[in-house]
Amino acid sequence: MDPRPVRTMFCLPYAGGGAGAYTGLLRELADLTVVPVQLPGRENRIAEPPAFTIAEVADEVAAATDEPYALYGHSMGARLAFEVVRELRRRGLPAPSRLYVGGAHPPDRRVPLAAAVDLPDDAFIDQLIRRSGALSELKHVAELRELMMPVLRSDFAWIKNYVFAPEPAIGCPIVAFTGVDDGEVGAAEMLGWARHTNAGFRLRTLRGGHLFVKDRPAELAALIAADLAGKRPLPEPDELHLWLGRPADHTTVLRHYTGRATVATSHTNDLTLLAAIAPSHADGPGHAEGPGHAEGPDDADNPGHTNGPTHQNGPGHTDGPTHANGPIHANDPSRRDGASHANGLGLANGAGPAVGAGHEAGAGARVRVGVSILRGLDLEGPDGGLAELSEDEREQIEDAAEEDRRWLAVRAVAAKRALMAADGRRTDPAVVGFPDLTDPGPWHAQCGPELDRLARWQVVHLPLHTSRGEALGAVAVPHDRVRLRFDIPAEQAG
């Protein structure tokens, strides 16, 4: 990868959009030359037929590839930018330093909204407004409708007719963005882009819906600038940081967060999934002991806390707290004094006062996070790995089609382990259940009133695509809405 700084970023628009969609980024990224590529049939090219080819768009970029550059594509533009990178590779030209993709299904997946192009105008427009944030004026302003319909139908026809051709993964990092309120392309879908690079993958979620590139340019610009500068900020209060990599490498990541964030880790053979959230008031940056401190009066109030290391390694192993003050063990660099491991479940970082049944934690209570990673093969043994599930969950799996049972079991066990870790292993997992294992989520536990403290967490599933195969992550976080920041190093992506 060229070590010189990126000076230019080419931007490709979403369906129906033009170069004007990037006015905000032009304003906010003053230190970067932002070059919106104007496709035919829109804005100053409105008189041209609204059709384009990959080769034509690649021509717009090719002349600038002798200097470090980046590509950003939003929605349709992301798929187009991906194909431009592959076209430039076929021409023997340098790859971009970054491929930024926003609000877009991975290229090997179909785009559900594209089917709407076959609907009559009124129904087509209604789908675009409701699902992708298109201008509501398209319904009522005849002049705007007449102007926009040809390019919208042309762009969505291109998306619908697009056929992914398998090729080697691209050799530049992919950084994906999605809006928290985007109901069309969420974080789980965006994680699929990790399959298409061998140079590292990152996911960032930001406030806003599908068209955050137009509606929240300052936030997007800040994320792009931080990425190009190599900055590694700490989690904000509504943010969850995740890292997926080799167990031998995660100690360096732990050091970045230790004493400044609440951290939990989970391991499965050759992969480690690490989660970090902002500490609560009791564990703020000025707190002398840092999150997860093993000693002090809080420990006596936490029946799930185990002083001293007790390990039971194995697939799906979930670590306990990362302690700010404990020295790293010479024989196990991933473990610190006071970490707790038992039964494949661990105490999530931040040992604090127990949350009693039937009431919420006080304002000074410490925040926890639980994390779990599993592969399908991890659920082996005489009980098929289902001992942790409730009777209702086992019945859901038994009633499912045979080809779906392993998938449902992995989802249920991963979620259960993450939730139990977040709660400090104070509960028999079999007495807690998730009512619908097919629900895409986020999930909330179903349990009796004596365990209503578990309702404070939501569990998010994360399909993980790595060079070592497919896995499933689950994270239990104490937020109703959470922004993700997910990093997968180059050796794991692809």
Based on the model shown, name its key terms.
single chain; 494 residues; alpha/beta; Rossmann fold; Ribosomal Protein L22, Chain A; 2 domains; 3-stranded antiparallel beta sheet; 11 helices; globular; TEII; Thioesterase; Surfactin synthase thioesterase subunit
Q: What features would you describe in this structure?
A:
It is a single chain. The protein is an alpha/beta fold and 494 residues long. The chain folds into 2 domains: 8-111 and 149-229, Rossmann fold; 256-481, Ribosomal Protein L22, Chain A, CATH 3.90.470.20. It contains 11 helices and 18 strands. It has helices spanning 23-28, 54-62, 76-90, 121-132, 142-161, 187-190, 212-215, 217-229, 250-257, 391-399, 402-422, and strands spanning 8-12, 33-36, 69-74, 98-102, 174-179, 201-206, 239-245, 262-268, 271-277, 317-318, 328-329, 332-336, 341-342, 345-346, 370-374, 458-466, 469-477, 483-488. The strands form 4 sheets. It has an 11-stranded mixed beta sheet with strand order 2-1-3-4-5-6-18-7-9-8-10, with helices on both faces. The chain has a 3-stranded antiparallel beta sheet with strand order 15-17-16. The two termini are 17 Å apart. Residues 280-346 are annotated as: Disordered. Residues 304-315 have a biased composition (Polar residues). Residues 284-296 have a biased composition (Basic and acidic residues). It comes from Nonomuraea solani. It holds the Pfam family Thioesterase.
